[in-house]
Design brief:
Chain lengths: 146, 126
């Protein structure tokens, strides 16, 4: 059986997830400033925001390089929890990383072998980030169907 | 469990991955035996390895996994042994992910690699 791959579709899905992650970390960053959060948490929020911005920009360019129009960010995203406390900020960060992990796992299944290695690395990076925000060790990050 | 069957040349890669995950399982079990104080911390890693082995056996459509390797690695200090094993497994599953033709099998292997990467990142010497 011949496999068919969709590098544009795979990366568009990841770009959409990264737009959402950048938005959510922006919300968390704004909220956490008033919560007297420990320095390591503030640092992790800042670093996570920069990581997802970097992935967003990379994917945007990679999609353009394939001759497609990158998916645009939504004006706003519905949040599953209002980050009113430090714990809720951490929960929201864990949620967004888990969503990214699932998207990257899906994207790996769509992408060509040439593209999927990078997506698999980002799958691992978001799984590690989710764990840093308190996610439990999972045998199959991003694959709740397994 | 949903595991896509590995066919064609993917099958050889998945067989090798299964052997590798079984070896990692045997090594974690050996570490648990030789470092009883860390048994509770190693138990979740063994649980994860068992799930990896089961998923790969399912992808090969085996009724049960083949016998695990009996010769585990020599006992090493716990602090470095766990991250070393996990780092190597992450690297190998990532290479497998790049090598297979099936996107679904690739996603399973990438997810396993991510799981090993979490162990590398989260494991701290007691």
């Amino acid at each position: 059986m011949t496999e068919t791959y969709d590098d544009v579709g795979a990366q568009q899905a990841c770009l959409a997830a990264e737009h959402a992650a950048v938005y959510v970390y922006g919300v968390i960053g704004g909220r956490i400033a008033g919560l007297r959060a420990p320095a390591d948490v503030v640092e992790r929020v800042d670093e996570s925001y920069e990581f997802h911005r970097g992935r967003r920009d990379f994917l945007d360019q990679a999609i353009r390089d394939l001759g497609a129009d990158p998916v645009a960010a939504e004006p706003a995203y519905a949040l599953p929890v209002t980050p009113a406390s430090l714990r809720q900020c951490q929960r929201l960060a864990r949620y967004v990383e888990n969503r990214c992990t699932q998207t990257y796992a899906y994207a790996v299944s769509l992408a060509s072998p040439q593209t999927r290695g990078r997506l698999a690395l980002d799958l691992a990076a978001t799984a590690v980030r989710a764990a840093a925000w308190g996610a439990r060790l999972d045998a199959f990050p991003g694959r709740p169907d397994l | 469990m949903v595991a896509t069957a590995a066919t064609g040349s993917d099958r050889d890669i998945v067989v090798a991955a299964l052997t590798s995950e079984q070896a990692t399982l045997a090594s974690y079990a050996a570490l648990s035996r030789t470092h009883p104080a860390a048994r509770k911390r190693i138990a979740p890693l063994i649980g994860v390895q068992r799930q990896h082995v089961a998923a790969l056996a399912a992808a090969l459509q085996l009724d049960s996994p083949p016998p695990a390797p009996t010769a585990a690695e020599p006992v090493r200090p716990l602090g470095s042994a766990v991250p070393d094993l996990a780092r190597r497994a992450a690297r190998d599953r990532l290479a497998d992910c790049r090598a297979v033709a099936s996107g679904s099998v690739a996603s399973t292997l990438a997810s396993m690699a991510a799981s090993h990467s979490v162990v590398v990142a989260e494991w701290t010497p007691a």
